[in-house]
Amino acid sequence: MSLKIDQDHHRFRAIVRGKIRGNLKKYISHGELIGRKGKDLVSIPIPQIDIPRFRFGEKQTGGTGQGDGEPGDPLGGEEQEGDGTGKAGKDPGDHTLEVDVSLEELASILGEELALPDIQNKGKSKIINAKDRFTGIRRVGPESLRHFKRTYREALKRMVASGTFNPTNPVVIPMPDDKRYRSWKTQSEPVANAVIIYMMDVSGSMGDEQKEIVRIESFWIDAWLQSQYKGLETRYIIHDAAAREVDRDTFFRTRESGGTMISSAYKLCDQIINDHYPAAEWNIYPFHFSDGDNWSMDDTMVCIELLKKELLPKVNMFAYGQVESPYGSGQFIKDLRNQLATEESLVLSEIHDRDAIMGSIKDFLGKGK
Length: 369
Description:
Oligomer: single chain
CATH architecture of the largest domain: 3-Layer(aba) Sandwich
Shape: flat
């Protein structure tokens, strides 16, 4: 019976997974999953899945096909008159079911849909983590690690051998010598750590819609990188003419009215890496989002020098996403293409609107860096 239930559950999860994958672009572009995110699970509304239910009628009332009646008569009693206050509809109702999906499974669906390769960790970036593993059984140990089945088996063997076991009254009482306990061993295993450093232009030309696009895209980037790394840290930098580090909430809610100097963010990013994330021990992913405006070509050349000499040699990938804005010139991405065309660790993406988010995620994560 339990095997049949497991099969039905797996079949249902496969249906749900297919529905999520089929509607993934809508979920990404609308951003409706972000507000439903918990600590480890995301609640997802799944349309068009009907869950069958039994509904029992009253006893002794007969059933369909029994008793008097003519074809066309209503079932379940006399026909009820409506009050006439509502307007008749012609469309079927929506059947929406909310299911909880783990972030790991959500990342797996994203990886399947976009054909994302697993990330190849830098070999020198692995650090050692100690972990306890249960490896066997022993006669002594704390009661919290007592192995019930092994203890019961030893007690039963002893009672049967001594002739004290009564099949008509099968009570098994373990003695101290019968008790068995799990044993463990501490093992060291390599763990790849990674840090994401998000940078965003918050000057007056970056509006609420542009920030929402960045928020949606960062949710999916986080989900994928968390599935690839055991330890993942996230840092946030905002900038206009000056840069500062902030928390996540401030990152997405701040809006300034000043000018833009992108080099200020790149200098702060490089400082954070040098102070906290040695390239020999960490996988480093800076993501910068802006509308392509910069104060001057001189500052753009400072950014290019910082990328060439400082940032690109240290990171797995430097991602620049340019979000289209009616107030931004869009020039910065053109300058990066002209000056850094041969740099493989620099990945550029243009995000025209929400429908382009899925393609931008593919641009950033599709190379497995």
